[in-house]
Amino acid sequence: MQRIMNNPDNIVDEMLKGFLKAHSDIVESTENGRVVKAKDIPEGKVGVVTGGGSGHKPAFVGYVGKNMCDAAAVGEICSSPTAAAFLDACKVADQGKGVACLYGNYSGDNMNVKMAVKMAKKAGITVKTVVANDDVASAPKDQREKRRGVAGEVLMWKVGGAKAAKGGDLDEVIAAAQKAIDNTRSVGIGLTPCTLPAVGHPNFEIKEGTMEVGIGHHGEPGIEVCPLESANEMAKRMVDVVVPDYPFVEGDEVVVLVSGLGATPVMELYVLYDEIDRLLTEKGIKTHKAYVGNYFTSLEMMGATLTVMKLDDELKELIDMPAYSMGLKQD
Amino acid sequence: MQRIMNNPDNIVDEMLKGFLKAHSDIVESTENGRVVKAKDIPEGKVGVVTGGGSGHKPAFVGYVGKNMCDAAAVGEICSSPTAAAFLDACKVADQGKGVACLYGNYSGDNMNVKMAVKMAKKAGITVKTVVANDDVASAPKDQREKRRGVAGEVLMWKVGGAKAAKGGDLDEVIAAAQKAIDNTRSVGIGLTPCTLPAVGHPNFEIKEGTMEVGIGHHGEPGIEVCPLESANEMAKRMVDVVVPDYPFVEGDEVVVLVSGLGATPVMELYVLYDEIDRLLTEKGIKTHKAYVGNYFTSLEMMGATLTVMKLDDELKELIDMPAYSMGLKQD
């Protein structure tokens, strides 16, 4: 295992120490060592919180910052943060206006957020939630509540963070973030597995010369294993999963996010994006804004995800708002 | 080879098409399909140009933008751009105030830039150059002119771009960029090789359980192959190569840049940075600003580079200036 680490049991804490030092202009530590908070949160706003397992950088702490999330709870690698961490994230983000907890649909996160919401209520803090479920491949369309949250979460945080920064009240922030994820669909293609530092060998297999369509960020099985295709064929396959599911139609304006899974060279993401944009344009779907890069990863997995979000006037304004976090900076 | 591509012969052009579409708020195409230029270059400033082979994203086109480079020439994967591309980059960046061409010390780049400077002179454009040579491991200290340019180039572009944006004349921009690279030292540790798309297999080898200290971005041999070490041991090894070479001493203020080589999980870069910062602090060296992430990569190589730059008042002001490019955004 060719990796940069000390004792794998300490990797999350050591990562957080380095992260907090490197980005001391954006984030700061809190009493709970597994909660990162934004520096200089503007007074009187609704708090925006997220959290999730480690190994998905920039997610989740990389999206704490100006006009983004106010705090994030940090879990072990590929494991949910504790309920206590979610609670403490809510506490540091709360300013008496309530907290929007925007997270992904995984059983551990669901359970721990639910407990944190109850504990927060007892502490006098109102927490409302949006659960991201943008991953088309993880369940049929009539069972959207079973779908996982993947890179679409980044757009949900962007929208929710911007709405709160603009002075939206708790219900307005929740409504905007919910609309963002309701308007968003994603799919991933995995080319290689990843290795958890504490395990030392891949916890699933993708055979050389094959690819797994619909793979999850933790190697959850996809919808099809097929022979490795060209970039253009992969683009078509991804567009063909994502577009009809929402469905995105002629005349729609969208945000497109192409994220690497960690180890795929970034130049290849641009090759993929070029064809995705061509296919969407051919369908009369107009890309208002594109994000291409490593936005939501799985350690050193190879592969990519495609995320498409349908815009309306409100979402466009919120997406276009400046933001400043480690993982997403825009003027 | 688990990669996202079509015909490997077209990968650079396809990447550029996707890059230009995705970042149309920052960059635009030019008549020369292998030259990318910044959008909305402020009038009357000295031009700042770079260029290099592909496969090192964000380098080189990712550092074209506001207060950064005005144009970049693009080569094939791991190959220098042509002299014509360097010339055309100078032409689109020139506003009659001259052009600073800031590039890395590789034989192909040296030859092609030299030709481009001559051709530019004939066309009435004054081009002066700074050649980055920050890679300590690539030649002894008394032969600095033989050393390669690596991730220190990012700091050279940041400083040169800022100086030009502040209205510096050509000699002042060249002097600032030269000082930036003179004050900068880097070293890399490679953990896995990379595979050029057109070749299909790694063009060099790093055995499992070993690491190569001082490796170059194209797999150029380093100074030592040794058994794989812990993150803290790697940090010490890197600091012990970089610090005594300049030398950085107690009381110095520095910029630290830790870049992944492509496929190393970003969380591991923070683990490495945490220990690097501790070692520098122990030596009385103060980090004014840190950059941690994938700033200068080699396709899907695993490993990392450490770059340290000594600051003075001028360099600090230029490093702190806002910038907006795909690879480096700061408020």
UniProtKB/TrEMBL annotation, chains A, B:
It holds the Pfam family Dak1. The keyword Kinase applies. InterPro entries: DhaK_dom, Dihydroxyacetone_Kinase. Gene3D superfamilies: Dihydroxyacetone kinase, domain 1, Dihydroxyacetone kinase, domain 2. It comes from Dorea hominis. Coiled coil: none annotated. Keywords: Kinase, Transferase. It comes from the Bacteria. Residues 7-328 form the DhaK domain. SUPFAM superfamilies: DAK1/DegV-like. GO terms for molecular function: kinase activity. PROSITE patterns: DHAK. This is Dihydroxyacetone kinase subunit DhaK.
